[in-house]
Amino acid sequence: MRPPGYFRPVLAALSAVPLLALLGTASAPARADNWPSQPIRWVVPYPAGGGTDVVARTVAQAITPGLGKQVVIDNRPGAATIVGADAVAHAKPDGYTVLTADTATLAANPSLYKKLPYNADKDFVYIGQLARFPLVLVANPNFPARTLKEAIDYAQKHPGKVNFASPGAGSPHHLAMELFMDQTRVKMTHVPYKGAAPAVQDLLAGQVDLMFLDLASGQQNVQAGKLRALGVATPRRLTVLPSVPTVAEGGVAGFEAYAWQGMVAPAGTPKAVVTRLNAELVKALKTPEVQKKLEGVGVEAVSSTPEEFASYARAEAERWGKLIKAKGITVD
Hints:
Number of strands: 10
Structural class: alpha/beta
Distance between the termini: 23 Å
Shape: globular
Strand content: 15-25%
CATH architecture of the largest domain: 3-Layer(aba) Sandwich
Number of helices: 11
Number of domains: 2
Radius of gyration: 20 Å
CATH topology of the largest domain: D-Maltodextrin-Binding Protein, domain 2
Largest sheet: 10 strands, mixed
Helix content: 25-40%
Order of helices and strands: HEHEHEHEHEHEHEHEEHHEH
């Protein structure tokens, strides 16, 4: 997953993108007995080729046979997912438009921005979770600490001297490090980038010391030893990095942080459609083929009921919202 730079969006200009011609300008209302009768547009608020895009395309391909109609990916990147979220929040609730909504869309943006063109609680209906992107604390090869404990000790002895990269202010990676600093009582300097790629590039070059990295953005560099993995921010060790301890094992009790995502649709989308889409999602996400494909890009497939996803997203919004407000983090 490669969150874009968290910058002030020029929403009017960015969101003025024509809809896919094959979907037409109007859609018939969705009914349980005839839905779907046309292609379904899946808006992905990130560029093509990134981790989020891979998840959507993998799952779309898996659910298309069961639905009997093509699921078309529509990439609408920009402004910390706001461009895509705005387009879907104001789309017809006819069952033919869905959105990949993630940590930024539903949990962070409502606290990071003073004004949003969408309301995370009121403008969407939750369909189900899709995936989690495990975060790994990594260091550049020249950083003097070789373990998590050594990194914490070094940062405590050099307050403000150690710096850390993130794909942007308010990104899950940034928020994870803010939480880490709170729980370890260390002070480090944040260096925000416009996306994961340039942040990783400078980390590899030794321009920055540390970073919470999602494996979709850097699994190969970690496995090849080009970046030193100090701890995974998950409750258990990762299968792809079995020798890397959890952050909790490294001495930071209870520490856990993910970048996550799920599917939502415009509020008012018929319940029959939500139920059908959720069933297809759950079936696809439990297949070995989908799980293997996602694991290969550093992503964990996660399925849920609509209610479970709504509850999880709201709990995450409360959790990260408190941290954002306590730290005074803002992007506008």
